[in-house]
Amino acid sequence: MVATIVAQATPPGVAGIQVIRSSGPKSIELLHHLTNRNNFSPRRLTNTKLYHPNTDKVIDFAMVVTFEGPASFTGENVVEYHVHGAPVIARMLLSVMTNFDDVRLARPGEFTERSLLNNKMNLLEVEALGRLLNAQTMTEIHQIHSVFDGQLANEIIQIRNILVKIMTAIEASIDFDDEGDVPADVTANVLSQLSQIKLLLNKIYQTGERNQNLFDGLVIAIAGQPNVGKSSLLNFLAGHDLALVSEHKGTTRDVISAPMILGDRRVVVCDTAGIRKTDDEVELMGIERSHEMLKKADLRVILTEYPPTAEDKELLELWPDALHVVSKSDMYEDIPESLLSLSTITTNGADSFLHKITELVQAQEVQQNVGLITQRQQYQCLEALNQIIKAEEMAQEALLLDLFAEHVRAAIYALDGLIGKVNQEEILGEIFSNFCIGK
To answer: I want to staple 377 with a disulfide (CB 3.0 to 4.6 A). Which of 67, 80, 258, 372 is the partner?
Structure first.
């Protein structure tokens, strides 16, 4: 018998209310035992007392709502108990519930897993839900909504269906050709279709690459000479001390990162080692990492003295698109208004700097097209794309079924893995391990 699972769906701790959720064949029976009544209307909140089955003492006065399967989140009978927010009430209720036969605590993500297994959600929607639960900005949420709308799944399924039709056309042509070669007109049509599929998959993949930036955060690198105030700026932006600040040059030897939100976008601000000429091997390694970070950063902030030294100018010329900021502005006089300046001690210029860096973050393109939202999806899409490219190569050499079909089938298999038609067991554990218990 399938177990009935129970879990707290709200975060633990003191709150106005806590929600306890159950799903499974014994959910309604469990409710009747806990309330000593059976007159509950589906999808309607009902005020009721919850009783301890052994002592008949009241555990709490609660609001209860039932969802009869399959018209529920999991596709099973589901009951939600809205109890008062004292942690002891939730603990007691869960303890009482799990004393019933075939009732146990849920594993992380098990409610969503049952929704998937009962065809209430597809794998793309499950991963989108995981992203949604961890979203930190409305920009992320808007991008996730395209998955729940079914746009992404529909595009993948359409591409898959075209590949299946290609396979059908090739096999039909082979049946009428003694040499095993496909006629030229069929070859041309297949190549045209493969070319279109390649463009579509590449567009989805590239949008997914940009989405990773959206969910992981734009990388902002702070660079400059030693002791120019890079670590102080990182600490200022983070709101607490992350990096050591010292008057001694070369204190920062590695990249120090701080995630934060700027302009409704996730960003990761990186403090880098001071860039200068030195014979210190360890410091040189840090400087090399600084250059690597500047190369891969989405935005760059270069701090300088005033007036900029020759070394400052060299760095600014190397990165002309960087935001130039005069640091430690409280130490200088007559800084031109055309230059952005900042003092982390007096906070003079802080508003202007934050406005400018936020403006640059918001200017970074957010792709509104349908795209992938996880690294796993990116891998599956890239595998399908690579198989299409190999199929094209086979078609251009000699369109033989045993050579061509191998790659088309592999592409179809990769797309099936993308939308969850195959290999679910191999990936569900990893996906649901990142979910909370009550989801």
So the answer is: 372
Tens of pLDDT, residue by residue over 96-144, are 999 999 999 999 999 999 999 999 999 999 999 999 999 999 999 988 9
Where do the CATH 3.30.1360.120 domains begin and end in the chain? 4-122
CA distance linking residue 222 with residue 311, whole number of Å: 16
Q: Name the β-bridge partners of 258.
A: 269
d(CA 210, CA 228): 32
What is 145-211 written as a DSSP string? Answer: HHHHTTHHHHHHHHHHHHHHHHHHHHHHHHHT-TTSBPPHHHHHHHHHHHHHHHHHHHHHHHHHHHH
Q: For the domain made up of 123-419, give the CATH fold.
A: Rossmann fold (3.40.50)
Q: Domain 4-122 class?
A: alpha beta
Nearest partner of 350 among 436, 261, 247, 235, judged by Cα: 235
In terms of pTM, does the model score above 0.90? no
The whole-angstrom separation of Cα 288 and Cα 295 is: 11
Please say whether the beta carbons of 52 and 35 come within 8 A. Answer: no
Mean pLDDT to the nearest integer, 162-174: 78
Q: Which of 389, 414, 423, 385 is nearest to 204 (CA)?
A: 385
Residue 193 tokens read as 């279709």
Alpha carbons 141 and 68: distance in angstroms, whole number: 29
Q: How far apart are CA 255 and CA 88, in angstroms?
A: 45
Whole-angstrom distance, CA of residue 290 vs CA of residue 274: 8
Place of tokens 């849920």: 106
Rounded to an integer, the average pLDDT of 341-370 is 88
Q: 276 to each of 281, 287, 321, 426, how far by Cα in Å? A: 13, 8, 20, 49
How far apart CA 265 and CA 362 sit, in angstroms, is: 7
d(CA 51, CA 49) in angstroms, rounded, equals: 6
Per-residue model confidence as pLDDT tens digits over 212-268? 888 999 999 999 999 899 989 998 998 876 655 555 555 555 788 999 999 899 999
Write down the pLDDT at residue 327: 94
Determine the pLDDT at residue 401: 64
Q: Which helix (H) or strand (E) holds 267?
A: strand 265-271
Mean pLDDT (the chain, rounded): 88
